[in-house]
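During data preparation, we tokenized the protein backbone, and the record follows.
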Amino acid sequence: MSAPTPITRVGIVAKPDLGDCADLLDRLASWLQSRGVVAIFDEQSAALAGGDRDRHPHMPADALPTAIDLIVLLGGDGTLLATADRVAMAGVSKPILGVNFGSLGFLTEVRLAELYDTLESVLAGTALIDERMMLRAEILFDGKSVQDVCVLNDVVITRGALSRMTDLSVSVNDQFVARFKADGLIVASPTGSTAYNLSAGGPIVHPGVDALVLTPIAPHTLTNRPVVIPAGSTLVIHPLQNSDKQDVFVTFDGQIGHPLPADHHVRVSRAAHPLRLVRPTNRSYFEVLREKLKWAER
């Protein structure tokens, strides 16, 4: 799938602790400008570029998605998750080109040596762009939304500091599914299936599959196994108050977390817009699995 509109304004986002990257950021901005493309930094990345911060156009990170046609991200998967969630919450679907500077780089597939060739293909409209489903998650109280976010990987519900089981009631499309007694529960997108879901024993789901994964974490009942459900489903998760009255927490993409009192619940559904992720043309999803996760190796 090619980029549908000409790229004239590119946002640049760098991992906050990327280190000595001023030269790289300057070269990237100059490369774009030499091709008639405006480079706009988020405020934190402009500071990383060094020198006079005002010599590069910049704006708050939350404003960036609506002002650009493409985001070039230098960092790891955590930086990409935060940026993807920000793009989705802005109600737009701008492509992200993620350059791997992290320890795993499962989502930020492009290597630094491939940056400019990949950018050339994006500007020419020939780049491969994957569409990855995102999730909308809401915390509801008395029928009203008190927290509304979009996530790329997962929504995770767990206990607090003490290692005790959660007791959660789950329904799908208003149909009761089960009462889960476990260390927690994961609702994952296909992209998120290779994150916490995989560590908890859930399945790997190809990002082209239109589905959600519901995975209990260390369930008390061994028959509580992961289940794959249609992507158009709406899940509602209620914490059930136990005698210890210990708090339950919900975490979104491992980035932010909130307490979940017994009179609140979580609703998860497909987000309005997918993430559009630029990928290198010379590697398949299965090659990335083998390289990053050592999948199917002895």
